[in-house]
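Field reference: sequence -> structure
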Amino acid sequence: MREIIKNNILNEEIVHHLTPSGLNVFVMPKKGYTKQYAIYATHYGSNDSKFIVPGEDKPTEVPDGIAHFLEHKMFEEEHGNIFDEYSKLGASANAFTNFNMTAYLFSSTDRFYDCLKVLVGFVQRPYFTDENVEKEKGIIGQEIRMYEDDPNWRVYFNALDALYKVHPVKIDIAGTIESISKINKDLLYKCYYTFYTPQNMVLFVVGDVDSEEVFRIADEMVKPGKVKGEVVRIYPDEPKSVNKTQVVQDMMVSIPLFNIGFKDTDVGYDGYKLLKKGIEMEIALNILIGKSSRLYNDLYDSGLIDNDFGFDFESQKDYGHSIIGGESREPYAVMDAIVKEVERIKKEGIAEGDFDRIKRFIKGRYIKMFNSVENIAHAFVSYYMKGISIFDVYKAVEEVKIQDINSRFEEHFNNPVISIINPISAK
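Structure field:
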């Protein structure tokens, strides 16, 4: 059975197929495009360190960093490396692990179906031994040390540590040298068979491809998972208050780096409501500190920020936060200016003209996104893991009202934290 999902505003469609094994497969045909792109993703990320396996009574708790470790190991086969196979096919392959998802992907301009078979095949073929797991600890240990020495990485995770008291989002995705030392092949296999099941995964393909051939390959190759049922994910109860107001660290930088964070306390839901909240927060942040805002231009003209300054809002079912940051010789002055502007907006409300302009900007950027197969694919799987349809974004933007944004200012922009990386010489 095929489900065709259409969006008349975009003049785009997605074809959906459920394989006999239970995997949801989606294809967005893009006639005339030379590049094809595929992502095979599992709803399993670094936050999932405590869970109950279907059929078991007691929770399983695994070392931090195991989802990322597992992603690394999936590319190693008994008789070679998956990257070598993609090189022979003239394709480019990659993977990533974030807080909530692990994804394997490739892009190609030729031999797409051969590449797809490699993708679907190796993600179902875990190969862990005592020897290759120990070897990987050294490789990932070097990666952890590299990120520990990266000021941009540290300023971000220090901000998360300030925002969150107990939620695992504050923990580095790769874990620590100590935590990965506890990983063994048995734990890797347990996590693999728990989370790498067809029902917990999605395959998305975009490009000038034959959807029926994609579905045929998935039907033939994707096998039922060993673990049946839904995993119970266990997260600690995160209080609404922040963990600490600031974190300051000295590193090898020439100008101080800073991240200002606001913790989202309106959590506990996903789907369309979560999508709408994300859009409301994007509009709010653009009005507050976007490049067309009064505050941004005042800070820029005064030399307090530069072109690297920016913001982001992370929105998940069980947590959320906005981060504003960049380089500045006076991070506290930037924070004071933001807090003052927040208070002004709370008092006066946002201007109708600013609201309409930012809405048009977001709708235009959303439409433009569908010109890039990479952007489409990454957006699709990110939304899918939150129970959101990529085609609902335009509708959600249209539905946002000015009072929604004023409400977000009242609810969200409170109790800021700041993370600063100072030059080592600064005393």
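Note: Residues 246-423 form a domain with the Cytochrome Bc1 Complex; Chain A, domain 1 fold (CATH 3.30.830.10).
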